[in-house]
Write a structure and sequence with these properties.
Chains A, B: This is Hydroxyacid dehydrogenase. The first copy, chain A, has ten helices and eleven strands. With about 300 residues, the first copy, chain A, is of the alpha/beta class. Chain A has two domains: about 5-80 and about 265-285, Rossmann fold (3-Layer(aba) Sandwich), CATH 3.40.50; about 80-260, 3-Layer(aba) Sandwich (Rossmann fold). In chain A, the strands form two sheets. In chain A, strands 6-7-5-4-8-9-10-11 form an eight-stranded mixed sheet, with helices on one face. Chain A has a three-stranded parallel sheet with strand order 1-2-3, with no helix packed on it. In chain A, β2, α4 and β3 form a beta-alpha-beta unit.
Amino acid sequence: MHPIEQAAVVRYTRADGLAEALRGADALFVYDFLSTAVPGAWHGADRLRWLHIASAGVDPVMFPELRESDVVLTNSRGVFDGSIAEYVLGTILAFAKDFARSLRLQQERTWQHRETERIAGRTALVVGTGPIGRAIARLLRAAGLRVSGAGRTARSDDPDFGTVHESARLNEHLGDVDFVVAVAPLTEQTKGLFDASAFAAMKPGARFVNVGRGELVVTGDLVEALRSGHLGGAALDVFETEPLPADSPLWTMDNVLVSPHMSGDVVGWRNALVEVFTDNFWRWREGRPLRNVVDKDLGYVPSTG
Amino acid sequence: MHPIEQAAVVRYTRADGLAEALRGADALFVYDFLSTAVPGAWHGADRLRWLHIASAGVDPVMFPELRESDVVLTNSRGVFDGSIAEYVLGTILAFAKDFARSLRLQQERTWQHRETERIAGRTALVVGTGPIGRAIARLLRAAGLRVSGAGRTARSDDPDFGTVHESARLNEHLGDVDFVVAVAPLTEQTKGLFDASAFAAMKPGARFVNVGRGELVVTGDLVEALRSGHLGGAALDVFETEPLPADSPLWTMDNVLVSPHMSGDVVGWRNALVEVFTDNFWRWREGRPLRNVVDKDLGYVPSTG
């Protein structure tokens, strides 16, 4: 028996039993972080005070009734930072070293020498300056890339990014860099941020990496920018519709790397998510301040300091 | 006309004209660094004083007549360091993040979530402590791995490796690490260094990366260690026979990444190689000390300091 089960009545439920299970509950732990069941079951939340979600992005639970309620929302900030940063560096190296083509040539038993690219000295713009974006910036910089960021407010002395551009003027800065990494939270402001105008503003041959949310991107515009050859490639771990539908053109494009929303999910990730909840549970139980409290107007946990 | 062509009579030749072209020549630039033509044409070298090779490894020209002669041998040390280091980090990330499987699943349009691995905190042993090995050590360390080295002499205070083990006692240390990177020069001492006993000494699931020379490895033993499942994978850029023969089992093994001896060859590499030769040409012409003089007993350029 988990210590939490000794300290509280714990109900486990799937989506179809959620409304019933919510009745009388003080706290809700949304473990299936992509579940869309919470809004439809909200009528059962007759005394809920706290909702914790096993993800960094809180967009699946940002429905109006929760936003307007007094329910405190916390997320799993921190669990995915290092893993996703490594994943992004891996995709940048995969593009630079042409690994996908090496694997296709290997399948054909074809020995074909090519010239590849350095990553040292290349430039990357990380769109999203939360903890995951910062971990990405630090790792890419350690590997020799020149990094800048894009976030809510422009600044020039950020410890991880150096220069941070204002996301609202993103397109003015997209043409400066070789790699664009999307890791912004999904909010009303960032939805569809990467559209035809953004892709057109990117440098010819630039690569686009999305480890944020699929809805940051207008998928049709991305497909067109890849098809035209303007973009050099895309590494996509998240999609507007997940799982990615079998008829999506993204599956079969040579310059696209598709992965199934797993960039942060290293061995042990589920335990790590439970530990974040457990830590907050004891804080809540003992009346101490919760960690990772989401600003429901912003749609993410604001940076401290 | 290249400035060198104004300062000297330059003869360009393929393998079949080499003996004739060597007659009367003072210097030889071996641009096709994998060519085996030099020993057979050596009888034409009637006044040769300097041989420069467009590679880091000098094994293709380490034949007895050259070793015993007074001909000075120089190599292209430095050109490949950063490129190969990036390539090695890329293969380590490809293993940790399971990129090869993602690409195969993409070809089948299959969405299949898996748990992947962190690289931070994992361990790597770099076998070979020349400039390329050092660049690998620095980059892997910057990316969060814990790195040690193996070289001619053991030491514990190396600036890049920290601890360097003695290559002659390599097998005692292979069991400690997650990734083994082979980048040693090919000499009588290192030929076949990675044999059945070495692979047996590695940790179950360890990955092996070879960016040195194929002859460092007993290929049949490597294939067996991969087939048995003892090794977790291998990334191979060099092979005992190049191009890798179409009937090699390495082409079709799921846990093997084959690339065609190109890990150091980034855009501009050929110009960089010519520049190294050109710099040494003017030094030679002006009687200044040459750079990258190979110790023909050791088979590589000894470290300075």
